[in-house]
Design a protein that fits this description.
Shape: globular
Structural class: alpha/beta
Order of helices and strands: HHEHEHHEHEHHHHEHEEE
Number of strands: 8
Helix content: 40-55%
Strand order of the largest sheet: 2-1-3-4
Largest sheet: 4 strands, parallel
Distance between the termini: 28 Å
CATH architecture of one domain: 3-Layer(aba) Sandwich
Number of helices: 11
Length: 266
């Protein structure tokens, strides 16, 4: 087996320890929501970005009565993890940064924490806000080094998407769960090593694009209905193929957090 799916899905759990250690030693963890944020800017500010959204329904039983009842599973899970302080990632973050996409998530975070919550506007605004909150100095050299690493990873991922026979779930985990690998040089090393083990086609594949709203928590159920190794699952916003009940965006098919995720540990 080239791709260890258990290893990739466990990266979030492993990030609990790393975030806690960085919180105690440096207090330099940032929770991020959105996969188009410029990760290199966070590293350039001497910080560690980690995806913040809750990805399972296990936490629902610990919420207050009717807590998050009118929210999608993504926001509900994130909210209850936040209010119960049962997620080391959320707890370790000094601030949260979201893409300028889901206003409801931003409002929910803002209303339930005293920590700063930032909507990303542009790189200059992000640099200034982060350096002020964390009392750090922005480094162009650190940013460029991080960007080089991220570009290398992105190029390998693109090659995997278009020229490999890895299945939908494997490519999804590589793309979305590798972001929990907070040590960026180690992430790059992992992908470079992985590239040597994969047999690539000579010709580009014809890709079937499947879109989903915030799919880190429902990717298994989405991928279970896909039988093609040419299908690729992408995150999107409006008019997605898959989404959640109570989502503020439009979608075609409903896929909520399922029982299989209730066994997830904190």
């Amino acid at each position: 087996m080239i791709i260890d799916k258990d290893f990739l899905s466990d990266l979030r759990r492993n990030a609990y320890i790393e975030c806690t250690e960085n919180y105690l030693a440096h207090d330099n963890v940032v929770g991020i929501f959105g996969d188009e944020l410029p990760e290199e800017i966070f590293y350039g500010c001497g910080l560690i970005p980690v995806p913040l959204e809750g990805v399972d329904s296990h936490i629902f039983r610990f919420g207050k009565q009717d807590e998050g009842k009118d929210l999608c599973d993504v926001i509900k899970s994130t909210l209850i993890y936040l209010t119960t302080q049962k997620c080391p990632i959320l707890y370790s973050c000094k601030t949260y940064v979201t893409e300028n996409k889901c206003q409801l998530l931003y409002n929910t975070l803002k209303e339930n924490t005293e920590k700063p919550v930032i909507i990303y506007e542009n790189e200059k605004q992000l640099k200034q806000a982060l350096c002020k909150i964390y009392n750090t100095q922005y480094s162009e050299n650190k940013t460029q080094k991080a960007k080089n690493d991220l570009d290398c990873i992105k190029n390998i991922l693109t090659e995997i998407e278009l020229y490999s026979d890895l299945n939908t779930e494997e490519v999804f985990l590589l793309t979305f769960y590798s972001k929990y690998m907070t040590d960026l040089p180690m992430r790059k090393k992992y992908f470079k090593s992985l590239k040597q083990k994969i047999n690539f086609r000579n010709e580009k594949k014809k890709i079937q694009k499947i879109s989903a709203l915030c799919p880190r928590g429902n990717y298994k159920s989405v991928c279970s209905g896909i039988n093609s190794n040419s299908a690729r699952l992408y995150r999107s916003w409006d008019n997605s193929d898959y989404g959640y009940a109570n989502c503020i965006f439009n979608f075609k098919n409903e896929k909520n957090y399922e029982e299989e995720n209730k066994n997830a540990s904190f």
